[in-house]
Amino acid sequence: MEIKIAEKGGFCWGVRRAMDIAMDTSQELHDTLYTYGPIIHNPQVIDMLEGKNVKVAEELENLENKTLIIRTHGITPEKRREIKEKNIHIKDATCPLVMRVQSIIKKYARKGYHTIIIGDPRHAEIIGLIGFAEGKGVVVSSVEDVEKLPCMDPVCVVSQTTLDRRKYQMLGEKIKEKFPHCVMENTICDATDERQTEVRKLAGEVDAMIVVGGRNSANTTHLAEISKSTGIPTFMVETEEEIDLDTMMKFTVIGVAAGASTPNWMIRRVVAKLEQIKLRKMDWLVRGLARFSGFLVMSNIFVALGAAFMTSAASMIMGIDPSTELEVLSFLYFLSMYILNSFTDQEVIRYNDPMKDHFNSRHKGELLIVGAVSALVALGIALSKGIVSFVLLLGASALGILYSIKMIPNFFDRPVKFIRLKDIPSSKDLSVSMAWCVATVLIPFFSAKNPTPDYYSLATALLFVFILVYIRCLLYDVRDIQGDRMVGRETIPILIGKEKTKVMLFILAGLLAATLLVSGSMHWTSSISFILLLSVAYSCSYLLLYKKRIIAQGFGCEMLVDGNFIFTGFIAFLWNTYN
Fold first, then answer.
1. CA torsion, points 25, 29, 32, 34, in degrees to nearest 10?
2. Which SS3 state, helix, strand or coil, does residue 266 take?
3. How does pLDDT run across 508-539, given as a tens digit for each residue?
């Protein structure tokens, strides 16, 4: 079975902007925040916001001196005046594209034009738009509505931003016939049009379509209608729980599309559920290998193995003979840290990795025991290597465990913003990368007896490990940007944007390649620096695959990305064997 995911999925720009405003305001306010009507047509997101003290207000009573967010659909000028008169603080999250339609209506209304709005008269956006027509507005949603229009002159025509372009063209032609001199303004959102076009295209490539989103979302409902109109079986679901696997087993290729108000983590949950069908249809041997691979990733064994291989590679960069004990130390240390932090950071995993969240819930007891024992054994090995190694690992372990734990109590009326290490912007990736440097580079450096490595090779090894790990972390941040935004985590992609972060990733890869070339040419390290350029090429390869959406999510993506660490250790081993 094959799953095809529509590229234009998840929050549209306007919804994402509104969510950002809500999350930022909620964190700054430290008080209940209200939205005038649901900020997004998705029950699961509304429930999530409720848990963060962002509540829906249908009426304006008892909101004096409170902060109210105007949702993406906008409101009428009269309603805005009423809100201000009640001394309610406004945070305007009206979509800029809706604002543009409002300004068009306002401009022509002042010139005496009648406004015809094509759209759903019950939709919140239309209700807001009609308020700008100064009593000369009318909404049409069918040919019959157009035929019933009275004589008007002059006339301006706009549309709901999420309208189907075909419907706009069809009704627009009818309006043009009745009012030949009318001014036609195309106000359909390009992103909405692209999403609808992609669904039509995807419907021609699949046997069935699943459309993910809230049933109260007109945008999502319309995508489902478009899919149904092509003649293929179409299933609209709000959550993965609504998917009947027995029904979906009949289909060979399944498409997944999502409305503009559907968060990426809901799409991931649906895809994860569909992956179960792929497992059912596999040959028993392939199915067993797939399940074993998934187990390695979700249990954090795979990334811990990568750390062991990186310890070997870093030792060779510094001219130290690899130590099996130190490789085991790295394996156990990272196994314990990734396991323990997965439970102190459960909210993040719940949104970003539903499969791992499910795995952790099922095996919580066993994982916690493995994590604790691994940490103790790793510390024991470090102690056997000397006090410096022990102190380094103990410090790194303490920081890893304390990363998600509150360290500053809220004694004040206004809580301190940074009460955990993870609250510091972009601290996660730096902390993880430095922890890798401690376990895979510094401990082997200080444990080495003969030969003693020099500081040039140490610096090269530190930079190599740090950048390779940092690239991996940043890529996962790009992938998980929406879930991180939900929980208030400030990562590099959130601070500077996804596209700039992607550019940054390639710049880092270039910097690492230059470092290895200089280090090898200056004989700070042996020829292994040139061999390890293959690791940089590997990183660039998976970055390109991610950019082209060939890899995007699931344990297959993680196996490919984290596989670079094992690949690095392997090519370093081959170099060491034949030199």
1. -30
2. helix
3. 999 999 999 999 999 999 999 999 999 999 99
Residue 83 token pair: 């809100």
Annotated catalytic residue: which of 2, 50, 125, 490? 125
Question: What's 522's DSSP letter?
Answer: T
- Which amino acid appears at position 119 of this protein? G
Angle 529-531-533 from CA coordinates, rounded to 5°: 80
Residue 408: pLDDT band with limits 50, 70, 90: low
Helix H or strand E encompassing 517: helix 498-521
Q: 227-254: b or e for each residue (b if 16 or more CB lie within 10 Å)?
A: bbeeebbbbbbbebeebeeeebeebeeb
Do 317 and 413 fall within a single domain? yes
Give per-residue pLDDT as tens, 134-171.
999 999 999 999 999 999 999 999 999 988 888 999 99
CA 308 to chain centre: 29
Domain count along the chain:
4
Residue 210 · residue 256 · CB < 8 Å: yes
Burial of 56 (0-12, 13-18, 19+ CB in 10 A): middle
State the residue range of the domain holding 425: 293-577
The reply to whether 308 and 232 lie within a common domain is: no
Q: How would DSSP label each residue in 289-313? A: HHHHHHHHHHTTHHHHHHHHHHHHH
- Do residue 244 and residue 353 come from a single domain? no
pLDDT of residue 409: 52
Partners of residue 2 on adjacent β-strands: 253
CA end-to-end distance (rounded Å), the chain? 47
Please indicate whether residue 125 is annotated as part of the active site: yes
Query: Which phi-psi region, left, alpha or beta, contains residue 276 (left: φ > 0; alpha: ψ -120 to 50)?
Result: alpha
Band of residue 411 on the pLDDT scale cut at 50, 70, 90: very low
